[in-house]
Write a structure and sequence with these properties.
This protein is 33% helix and 18% strand. By secondary structure, the chain is an alpha/beta fold. It has two domains: 59 residues, DNA polymerase, domain 1 (Orthogonal Bundle), CATH 1.10.150; 277 residues, Aldolase class I (TIM Barrel, Alpha-Beta Barrel). The chain has a ten-stranded mixed beta sheet with strand order 3-4-5-6-9-10-11-12-13-14, with helices on one face. Strands 1-2 form a two-stranded parallel ribbon. The protein has a two-stranded antiparallel ribbon with strand order 7-8. α5 crosses α6.
Length: 358
């Protein structure tokens, strides 16, 4: 079987070229073509001899994600449906910045997926309603950036692991993909511009802190009340709210980086004065940032039960909630609903026409 080179580190490429009887410098050439230049085939590698290219064709391959669909929102957000080699599919979202924000012309964010589906069944998330099929490889994660960049006239500056799937359940491939994205000989995306989001695997958060992976961490929190959070995020039954917060405190003490807490605001559920007090108390325990996120309908997944009873807080309610937090000197950002009209906003990613793309 031919070896897929996309997703291999420089060290792994060195081992591969040496196994072919080639010199180590060939690995650097391959690394540059794969990641810095986004080559889709060996024929594009113009500074590599024809003889070596023919050798590569016999022994290796470059597996590329195929763009099966591309939807463009009225606000400029672009959603890609990428077909994988086995026929499965994932979505990625290219998000332009608010044009009123400072330095907007230098920022373009890609939200990438880490799994086909997700096993966590969070009640507000369309991906969870899909169920889980498999983890993505490091190459499939990185190639979402490469293929999206090929279709953008602006450089992707930021990558957020907030798409389909739970990154901490695919830890090794996610961390490997982070290293490939960050490498200045390749895609060269700065560590401060990469964010990994988790629904709350306390053990993996501690591992992430111990390994001092130099990227940002975000936690999908949504409630500090054990019963409330468990009702919308079943993972809370495995890792309690307090255990989760202790792991985030451990992360801060180890890395000295402020985590971000993501908080979808539901009408009458987690937007009460008591909920605000709990967040304010949390900010006294750990320096942090709060992202308040609108709830986006996932009715297209035909949800039932508790999930069907969740409703979005109004913009006025969200702003009032934010002001309560800000009066206690908390750093609070109220997020926009980028891509809502193409089902690309937070919580809306799902392959709804079956898990395979034919």
């Amino acid at each position: 079987m031919k070896k897929n080179l996309k997703g291999l580190s420089l060290a792994e490429l060195r081992n591969f070229v040496e196994s072919l009887g080639e010199k180590k410098y060939r690995a650097g050439q391959l690394f540059s073509w794969l990641y810095a230049k986004g080559a889709q085939s060996f024929d594009e590698m113009s500074d590599i001899s024809k003889e070596f290219r023919e050798t590569l064709k016999r022994s290796a391959s470059i597996l590329n994600l195929q763009t099966a669909a591309k939807d463009i929102s009225q606000d400029g957000t672009i959603k890609f449906l990428f077909k994988l080699e086995d026929g499965m599919a994932v979505e990625s979202v290219l998000i332009p910045p608010d044009q009123q924000s400072p330095g907007f012309e230098k920022r373009l964010t890609l939200c990438v997926s880490t799994q086909v589906g997700c096993p966590l069944d969070c009640k507000f998330c369309a991906t969870g309603a899909m169920g889980f099929t498999r983890n993505l490889t490091a190459g499939e994660i990185v190639d979402q950036v490469i293929q999206s960049q090929r279709q953008s006239d602006r450089r992707i500056s930021n990558v957020v692991f907030m798409g389909m799937g739970e990154p901490m359940l695919n830890y090794e491939n996610v961390i490997k993909s982070v290293a490939l994205l960050n490498d200045d000989r390749g895609l060269n995306i700065g560590a401060r511009h990469i964010t990994i989001s988790t629904a709350g695997y306390a053990d993996k958060i501690r591992q992430f802190a111990d390994e001092k992976i130099p990227v940002k961490l975000a936690l999908s929190l949504h409630s500090l009340d054990q019963a409330k959070r468990a009702s919308i995020m079943p993972i809370t039954k495995k890792y309690s709210v307090e255990e989760l917060i202790e792991s985030m405190i451990f992360y801060y003490r180890k890395t000295r980086r402020r985590p971000t807490f993501e908080y979808i605001v539901f009408d009458g559920f987690n937007d009460t004065p008591d909920d605000a007090k709990a967040l304010i108390a949390l900010s006294k325990r750990i320096p942090c940032k709060i992202n308040l996120i609108p709830f986006h309908s996932i009715d297209f997944m035909h949800t039932a039960g508790f999930a069907a009873d969740l409703h979005a807080a109004s913009p006025q309610q969200m702003e009032a909630f934010a002001q309560v937090l800000r009066r206690s000197d908390m750093t609070v950002l109220v997020r926009n609903s980028s891509g809502k009209d193409i089902q690309a906003a937070c919580g809306q990613l799902a392959v709804t026409q079956g898990e395979k793309v034919l």
